[in-house]
């Protein structure tokens, strides 16, 4: 059994991350497995070394440890390009130069992965890609390649249930996701995450319910790439007093700040109602 905690170093870790990390390590311990740390720093416009250093400090402070070496996705961009090349070879991708403004002006509606792309560039050919273009997955073509029903197993504290994924959910709620960003050429989270989960032999993905709506896309990518689908456990989110989900930008809630104020890991566990 192998699971992972895979933060993006784009801001300080907050109480929600503490809950997630502690849950990942608890599941690994309960099942006699291993918890890995993976740094998901493919967004070159937002990832910061200082935040990565903060992640290591915070996790050590919480009493968590992990086997070396840590996989840092920015060190493996060539791997994700190769994976994307396989999807392109299969005719499942197209180049897209649309800006966010274009997409909004074309009447896009919000979905699970930002705006659902309205399809403006869908008929473009990879052979005509321009240097600054992004690359998208053609969802309809991808689904046409999948021969049997898409599903995954969602586990809970003492339950396991099969979750079916409808094609409609993928076309209407996700659409044609970006797999390589425009301009920066950064690989998208979905591609890097799915590839690394397979490469690292992840058997259990433990992460928050905020990512649950993206799991169908990850399962589809696993199927297209010939990867096994791990078990998924989407844990509850930590909310503030008003029930609002804590965002990374809420710096006042940074774990490092609580630490500087003299709180202990035990105090943190108490605040987020985490029991070992
Ligand atoms: N890097 C993602 C995040 O920080 C989490 C990825 C995952 O657990 O699948 O939101």
From TrEMBL:
Entry similarity comment: Belongs to the class-I aminoacyl-tRNA synthetase family.
Gene Ontology molecular function: ATP binding; glutamate-tRNA ligase activity
Residue ranges occupied by any Glutamyl/glutaminyl-tRNA synthetase class Ib catalytic domain in the UniProt entry: 3-103, 172-267
Xref: SUPFAM superfamilies: Nucleotidylyl transferase
Listed PANTHER family: GLUTAMATE--TRNA LIGASE (PTHR43311), GLUTAMYL-Q TRNA(ASP) SYNTHETASE (PTHR43311:SF1)
GO cellular component: cytosol
GO BP annotations, alphabetical order: glutamyl-tRNA aminoacylation
Organism (species): Yoonia maricola
Protein name from the UniProt record: Glutamyl-Q tRNA(Asp) synthetase
InterPro entries attached to this UniProt entry: aa-tRNA-synth_I_CS, Glu/Gln-tRNA-synth, Glu/Gln-tRNA-synth_Ib_cat-dom, GluQ/Sye, Rossmann-like_a/b/a_fold
Sorted UniProt keywords: Aminoacyl-tRNA synthetase, ATP-binding, Ligase, Metal-binding, Nucleotide-binding, Protein biosynthesis, Zinc
